[in-house]
Specification:
Blueprint (H helix, E strand, L loop, with lengths): L2 H14 L10 E8 L3 H18 L16 H5 L5 H11 L3 H6 L3 E4 L1 H15 L3 E5 L7 H19 L43
Parallel strand pairs: 1-2, 1-3
Helix pairs in contact: 6-7
Length: about 200
Amino acid sequence: MRGKAIMDGFWQRMRDTGKEPNPYHAGFAQVVCVADTDAEAKDLYAEHIDYFYNRCLHVYPGFADAPGYRTNRTVKAGIKSQLEMAAQRARMQLTWENLVDQGYVVAGSPTTVAERLNDLADSLNAGHLMVLLQMGSMPRDVALYNTKLFAEKVIPMLRDKFNEFEDHWYPKPLPRAARAVPHVPEPDEVPLHNPLVTGSR
């Protein structure tokens, strides 16, 4: 939700310069917690999300940005950095319900998560979603469970999102003809003596 002010400004700038509003021109990072049900999501993840948001983000606002990171226009617009907002959140002691309701965390069943991520993508017009599936004190087995559910049950519901646009920015492999081919030396090309290796004879 807080990212919308930044993204709205970005898309306004794109319109001002006559650029296509291709959602793949934008990306957004989001904490995601998937379980079989909304209630199970709270049981599994609340402790670890609480640890991160309420114990790990005590950042002095003066250290929130590198010098010169924000322009005067950005400062005047009241747009705060992620670290500065994180420091404010840390002082608020947000509950699981607060974090989910305010959009810091997208959590619940696969259907709930897919619906909220779909709304997020539409609201921000962001085609590249970087999901954060491990957070805070979350142990390995819980992170793997989260990742598995997201991959198997959420991604299929979002796969066709924005398919009317071409993604010019996602990395693509070189054509096979343009790829480097490793050289395999012939037996007579292998040196018997390598002066750079200690003890070679």
